[in-house]
Amino acid sequence: KLQEKPKDSGKVTITKTFDFAGEEVRVTKEVDSNSKEAKSFLKQQEKWQSASPASLPTVSGVKRPSGMSSLLGKIGSKKQKMSTLEKSKLDWENFKEEEGIVEELAIHNRGKDGYIERKAFLERVDHRQFEIERDIRLSRMKP
């Protein structure tokens, strides 16, 4: 289920509802109104509004949904499933925002103490150590 809340700052708030382990999970994202995601969201909203026209009155005067509208309504009411990885990613993003550590993590990972830099350093050290040991072994061998 998607919802839209237009704001004056040119942003569109998109709320998606997922099903995770039998629970309803709502993901809210704010994007620029000019982005692809916002345009596709607005287009989908227009499609949903035009797909469910007013139903024709029945003999008793009570409105019932027509065949096509009721089918679309049933299809649209299904929630998307969310995988464990997606849920973990969502939880991690929420945690970073709550704790206010987004910038700190970006700076830390960009600098000298980043994981990739440390890994590359350890690989270089290991390679140099191997070369030193190989040279020692080769020098001890007698031709």
Summarize the structure.
This protein is an alpha+beta fold and 143 residues long.
Question: Can you describe what's shown?
Answer:
The structure is a single chain. Strands 1, 2, 3 and 4 form a four-stranded mixed β-sheet that branches. By secondary structure, this protein is α+β, with helices and mostly antiparallel strands. The chain has helices spanning 36-51, 67-77, 84-99, 102-110, 115-140; strands spanning 2-6, 11-20, 23-32, 80-81. Among the domains are: 9-49, no CATH class; 99-142. The protein is elongated. The N and C termini lie far apart (78 Å). It has five helices and four strands. Mean pLDDT is 78; it is low at 55-59.
Features:
alpha+beta, 143 residues, four-stranded mixed β-sheet
Strand content: 15-25%
Spell out the helices and strands N to C.
Answer: EEEHHEHHH
Largest sheet, in brief, is: 4 strands, mixed
The secondary-structure class comes to alpha+beta
Chain-averaged pLDDT = 78
In DSSP terms (H or I, runs of 4 or more residues), the helix count works out at 5
Pfam family, one: BCNT
Main location: nucleus
Domain BCNT-C: 62-143
Subcellular location: Chromosome, Centromere, Kinetochore
Architecture blueprint of SSEs:
Elements: E1 2-6, E2 11-20, E3 23-32, H1 36-51, H2 67-77, E4 80-81, H3 84-99, H4 102-110, H5 115-140
Parallel strand pairs: 2-4
Antiparallel strand pairs: 1-2, 2-3
